[in-house]
Amino acid sequence: MLRARDLAEAQSTQKTALSKFLDNIIANIPSCVIVEDAITREILLVNDRTQQLFGLSKSLIVNKRPHECMSPELSDYFNNLADVALRSEGMHEREQLLMTASGERILHTRAHRD
């Protein structure tokens, strides 16, 4: 019994370390990263670049749907892209000039379902 508990704790520690490592990598990707729940459409994860582009802290984005934390124009853009990605397989790309907290930007986005 004790050995099984030790193994479980070791695996848990390894998973925690791996999760922190991956979070650090994602946080420092120079492009925006947004991970959204396919069913609820809640935003599960954003990186630092996303926070800069939208001018919002992670706490104001995560666990919200795009229409709850973005302008209607940005929300529509991301919702339409997610709709296309959910309906069909493969990588879906879109490019559009949009107003962000950093001013007008051409957003070149890619989406796919997992």
Keywords:
114 residues, alpha+beta, Beta-Lactamase, two-stranded antiparallel ribbon, 50% helix, transferase, PAS, kinase activity, PAS-like_dom_sf, PAS_fold
Radius of gyration: 17 Å
Name the beta content range. Answer: 15-25%
Q: How many beta strands in the DSSP annotation?
A: 4
Largest beta sheet: what is the strand line-up?
1-2
Structural summary, described in words:
By secondary structure, the chain is of the alpha+beta class. A two-stranded antiparallel ribbon has the order 1-2. A two-stranded antiparallel ribbon has the order 3-4. The protein folds into 2 domains: 1-29; 31-112, 2-Layer Sandwich (Beta-Lactamase). 50% of the residues lie in helices and 22% in strands. It contains 5 helices and 4 strands; from the N terminus they run αββααααββ. The chain has helices at residues 2-27, 48-54, 58-61, 66-69, 72-87; strands at residues 34-36, 43-46, 92-100, 103-111. The termini are far apart.
Care to give the gist of this entry?
The protein is α+β, with helices and mostly antiparallel strands and 114 residues long.
